[in-house]
Write a structure and sequence with these properties.
This protein is mostly helical. The protein is built from seven helices and two strands, in the order αββαααααα. It is globular and about 50 Å long.
Amino acid sequence: MNQGAKIVSESIIGNDFRTVFVVGKAYTVYPPTIYKLSGAISNLSGIQDADNLKEVLLSLGESKSYSKALSWLITGDESLSEELAEGTYEENVNALDEALSMIDSKVFLKAVSLARNVSLLAAKPRL
């Protein structure tokens, strides 16, 4: 079965989710919507370019941005960020990596690049 058919069939039967663990608690993450992805990206705007998604996530260093971004992907807001911040740096990065693996990393990297470009346009006055 090709990858596209697998994604569609998993979506139809409700099997298109991932379970991530932070501080010993399980959280269910469904494929991110544009809204959730935008919220997560807004917290990860300081990331640098890298070869793969894991390196991109690690480029922020230890930060509360990871727990905020993960909260966006789980609930669509920052309501879980303080609870998730109790987890280790590695737990949050691994959970984010797992959650974002449900979308093509090229799409995620392009979205981050576009968000960075938009922020530069908003910050620089036109002459």
